[in-house]
Each structure stands twice: as structure tokens, then as C-alpha cells.
Write a structure and sequence with these properties.
Structural class: mainly beta
Helix content: under 10%
Number of domains: 1
Strand content: over 45%
Order of helices and strands: EEEHEEE
Number of strands: 6
Number of helices: 1
Strand order of the largest sheet: 1-2-3-6-5-4
């Protein structure tokens, strides 16, 4: 996937024109070359993060250069720490 470490956004879309919500995250590679994301604290706190995660695990990862990848999100030890994996056929 790209230069994977840095600031990005996880986005949940209802359809091609309706953004349901986004979470700002810091992404990095873990020890197994997998992606991890740490949610940057939002004004709404953990409740807003939890609500978006409850929408489903499929979302869009938008990088700072506006490129995107379709990913699946797994909770790790909390709603703040997430594991990401690319969806089949993703950039």
C-alpha cells in the first residue's frame, strides 16, 4: 500500500455520496508488517468512535495525499487501538 506511516482518516460511507462519519487516526506498521491505527481523540470522545465502529468493519482509509484504500477494521485492545487489513482488490 503506500508510505503507510502517518496521519490518515478512516471513513464510513453509506453510498458513493453520503459520508456517515470519519475518524482521524495515526497509522503505522506493526512488528508483523501489518497496519495498526490509533484513533486521535475527537471532540466527541470514545462514544463517537464506538458508534462508527458499530457501523461495520469495512471502511475507507484516506491518506494525507487524498489517495484511498479499502480496509477492514478490527478492534484491538480498545476502541482507540485498531488493526487494519486491506480488502481484496484494494490499492
Amino acid at each position: 500500500m503506500k508510505d503507510l506511516e502517518g496521519i490518515a482518516q478512516l471513513e464510513w460511507w453509506g453510498n458513493g455520496s453520503t459520508l456517515l462519519g470519519r475518524l482521524p487516526v495515526r497509522i503505522s506498521l506493526d512488528d508483523n508488517n501489518g497496519l495498526t491505527a490509533v484513533v486521535r481523540r475527537a471532540v466527541d470522545g470514545d462514544e463517537a468512535s464506538q458508534s462508527l465502529l458499530d457501523l461495520g468493519s469495512a471502511c475507507t482509509l484516506r491518506f494525507a495525499d487524498d489517495s484511498v484504500a479499502q480496509v477492514m477494521v478490527e478492534r484491538s485492545d480498545s476502541v482507540i487501538h485498531l488493526r487494519l487489513c486491506a480488502q481484496t482488490g484494494s490499492v
